Amino acid sequence: MADALRPPLQSTVRPSDREPSQDDLAKLRAWHEERLQRKLRGEYESQQLHLAELQLNDTLDCPLRIASVKVHGATHTSKAFLDWLIRLRLTSPQPDHSTDAQSTLQSVLQTTRAISDSLSATDLFRTISARVDRSPEGTPGDVDLNFTVTERGRFFVKTATEIGNCEGTASITARLTNVLGRADTLTFNSSVGTKTKRAFDASFSLPVSPSLNTTAFLSLVGADRELGIQGGSGREERVAIKAGLRHGDGLENGVHELTAEALWRSIGNLAPEAGLGVRQSAGPALKAALAHRWTLNTLNDHIMPSKGTLLRIAQELAVTKRIPPSPFLGSLWSTSDVGNNGGMGEGSTAFCKIEAEAKRGWALTRGSALSLCGRSGLLQVLAGNSDTLHWSDRFHLGGPLSVRGFSADGMGPRERTTSLGGTLYYALGLSLLSDIPIRPTWPIKLHTWVNVGRLQDRSQDVRSTVHTLLTRPSVSAGLGLVYRLDPIRVEANVAFPLAASRGEGLRRGIQVGIGLEML
């Protein structure tokens, strides 16, 4: 603080403080440093007197027992929740495996730190202070742990304009925390955009374990988005209810997420030239799914990683079925008429879907980093006809966020201008990011990359499928610039498609990408 003093300064002189004249900056800085040291010495002496009042000697092995734990200032937080949270720290073994009969000053201090960390992990309190006091009602050696907290604000409202995933959106977010007094969160988000015309997300979550590593959530989401040329220039409307559990601290063991979903969706407003593949999915349909996702992310930077690894595995087991149009959902979402696309593909389909992603970063020279990213996916039909798979359930590949040098969703099987999607894919990306030599501190980085990928349908002949997948890849390379706009990554590349399958949509020349995650 003293180093930040710059004249002219506002006069705060009081005779009792003997503050030097503000004209002499050196003396004023020395006076502030001495005043700070006096304050620190006073706090230290106060703590020493407080320990003396507890009748402790100078050893951490001094016998001491916790009689009670009290939290003051948590007016909107449930006492039962705090007891549930603290009880785990009182019963869990300490690093020295001490028991209650052998409780010492060291174990009491460790328990105090553990409870303080638990209170902080709830993210409900702005300040937390702890004090060890002699218990007025206990026997000699009994102490009370008194925590004084200041709660954070419970209401939050934000409006924002965002650019990401190749579209622009304007959104409003409202959040209410601690509704039930159990570190729960109620969030509502509504947005409009250029590609996703409108969307909403209402969710409620709360911790279900005293370690706070496991969270239950329930959400209602809806969206109305354009499918683009690759989707027959149509629009898809969807409403879904999701419920699940999220477990993990995001460190050594990663994060597991188990979700059950019930989804209503409808594709309509297709162009006359739309292919048969997307027409078969036109009209309303239901989907019930059970999904699991595991993520382990140790990358030191999500845009220019120089060390660490990202691993992500997702599995989904789902059943879909075509249904007649719903008057309720039609009036709610103004469902477009199927029009000239004639709903087909009747019946139910069950399938299993698996996707995996891995990313690794290496530091080369100062200011440059190399990253390798790989993604793959497999969709296996378990019951029903693979021709009745919904267009949105199939994999789609290509574009600035996946395989560069190709149009968005422009890879794989096609029917005229419409992408049919596929049931098997892989994509590899090798990227070299480096500082601009004359401007190493700029958020703009030089970018050189090579992408390889393929999207196709899986046939009955596994050997033939693997041979085609590996021997007929689509390849592109290029160079450009990356602008770091945390957490968004903006790319402007000059792309050169080197190999492609017949009919795939190529994107030669300048290609701009905006997103959170890229290959």
Write the layout of secondary structure elements.
Blueprint: H1 25-53, E1 65-72, H2 79-91, H3 105-121, E2 125-134, E3 142-151, E4 155-164, E5 167-177, E6 185-193, E7 196-207, E8 214-226, E9 235-247, E10 255-268, H4 276-279, E11 283-297, E12 309-322, H5 327-333, E13 348-363, E14 368-383, E15 414-415, E16 418-419, E17 424-435, E18 444-456, H6 462-471, E19 474-485, E20 488-499, E21 509-515
Parallel strand pairs: 1-3
Antiparallel strand pairs: 2-3, 4-5, 5-6, 6-7, 7-8, 8-9, 9-10, 10-11, 11-12, 12-13, 13-14, 14-17, 15-16, 17-18, 18-19, 19-20, 20-21
Helix pairs in contact: 2-3
Figure out the total of helices. 6
Give the proportion of residues in helices: 10-25%
**Secondary-structure content class:** alpha+beta
Q: How would the global form be characterised?
A: globular
Give the percentage of residues in beta strands: 35-45%
Rg over alpha carbons = 30 Å
Termini separation comes to 44 Å
Element string (H = helix, E = strand)? HEHHEEEEEEEEEHEEHEEEEEEHEEE
> What's the arrangement of strands in the largest beta sheet?
4-5-6-7-8-9-10-11-12-13-14-17-18-19-20-21
Provide mean pLDDT, rounded: 82
- What is the makeup of the main sheet? 16 strands, antiparallel
Number of strands: 21
Q: Regions with pLDDT < 50 over 5+ consecutive residues?
A: 96-100, 330-345
